[in-house]
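Quick question: what would this complex look like in 3D?
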Amino acid sequence: MRDKYEAVIGLEIHAQLKTDSKIFCGCSTRFGDEPNSNTCPVCLGLPGALPVMNRRVIEMAARAALALNLNINHESIFSRKNYFYPDLPKGYQISQYDQPFSERGWVEIPTSERNESGHATEWQTKRFGITRLHLEEDAGKSLHEGMPDASKSYVDLNRSGVPLAEIVSEPDFRSSWEAYDYMQYLRRTLLYVGVCDGNMEEGSLRCDANVSVRVRGAEKFGTKVELKNLNSFKFLQKALEYEIDRQIAAVEAGEKIPQETRLWNERESKTYAMRSKEEAHDYRYFPEPDLPPLITAEELIQKLRAELPELPEARRRRFVEEYELSFEDAAQLTDSRGMADYFEEVVRPSGNAKAAANWILNELTRELKSAGIDIAHSPLSALQLAEMIKLIDSGGISGKMAKDVLIRMYQSGRPAEEVVREIGGSQVSDEASIRAFVDQAIQSNPRQLEQYRGGKTGLFGFFVGQVMKLSGGRANPQVVNEVLKNALEG
Amino acid sequence: MGIARADVEKIAELARLELTSEETDLFTEQLSSIIGHVEKLNELDTTDVQPMSHCAPAGGDSEYAKRDDQVRSGLGQELAVENAPDPEAGYFRVPRVIGG
């Protein structure tokens, strides 16, 4: 039944720009401070207070806009969006309406459906349009739960006036996973260009979605429902999936879908309609008389464009081409700029991209994850890892031994050679020593030797094992293979 | 163009104003007259005139009225909520807005 329909999804993402002070006043944007401690007449909405634009907000917004291929308007206008809510002290939010900061962008990214176990089924590159990125101030925070008086709401205005970039996509997503992949990419990009910390738990990145369904092939959109409270990637995907099913079931049953706002309830894994009274939206936008038009100078745009780092998708493609990595490896290695930088710092001196990818994505990631450390602060430096890879490649240590070496390097911060010496010598690669182990292994197992020579060649592995045991795991496997083969067949 | 009673009722609702029937009549009449007066401007031909909503330097100055990203101490918690009718523990306490 689901195949008969297709979903049409658009996302509105609010990203907090990583400034020190608020967008229109000098109050701190720090998270977690005492309630209402970072406030002043401007962000409290006291009479007569006037907003003044934070220069850094423009720079950060421009960096985000350029990274998303948006056209930055030379002149944009702030408008008042009027509504009543206790966490909005002025009775309006300063936002942008008919002349936004930037318009008409896009991203071209890989996306895939997932199977039951959550694995991608087939990656395809798709282009998703971005309608606009505009600037606005955040509202305060209302707390309703866990406060002394349950019949009251408590308002903290520390967040009031924190700079936000609202990024509105075109209704280009046809499945929850497309929306999910886009959201992931957007977050990654904002982190790459250093304008948002991407922390969804602290509300630095928030997401609302517009969802409708229509019979596949139909041109007209169905009635759209706005979903709020999608503040993790998992919630976004699950809520969309739930909502698509709900709408298809309603249409199948001949019901009309009302245009409404629904909230995702994680505990029950359901969406609920918000009370319709709060729906009587008429924001009566008009130009903000207290702020002049925002002029973004062409020279600034040119300068920021030139400074833009290589973006995640371009970098992923280059990793596949230049280092011959698999799609998955390249995607994981470009997940953060720190990870991608680290990888390239290992590849440069070691000259072995494949090994660098493997060590980083497996052993190192495991260690970092369990210690909760970001790769940018890895106790094992990229140069040290490169040294270790060179030791493996020159036959100085076996791959098996290297795992132990890596952990010890990670824990002690000492160079590879020193660690190898400490744990009892390097790998044995010289033929004479290995021949001694091989001879010993053959002599102590005459029955297996006979069977092997009688055609049971599968016993080769048995002999390798014996040699490794005799050498205490230090014999170079390649040399063992060679010498053993000659000896057994000889 | 006049202002209808329904317009006044809607604006009052959006502004959270409770008007008596007499007040609604009175404001409908007054607002109609004001709007009618301002409407006179529509007689001018403004085809080639850019709308202006702000006084700002001609030609656009990207440095006009901007500040650096520097933190300045504000009022602080105590002063911020001092004049609020019902503060508690540094919060503004208000009638519950959702659920309940």
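Answer marked as accepted. Chain B has a mean pLDDT of 88.
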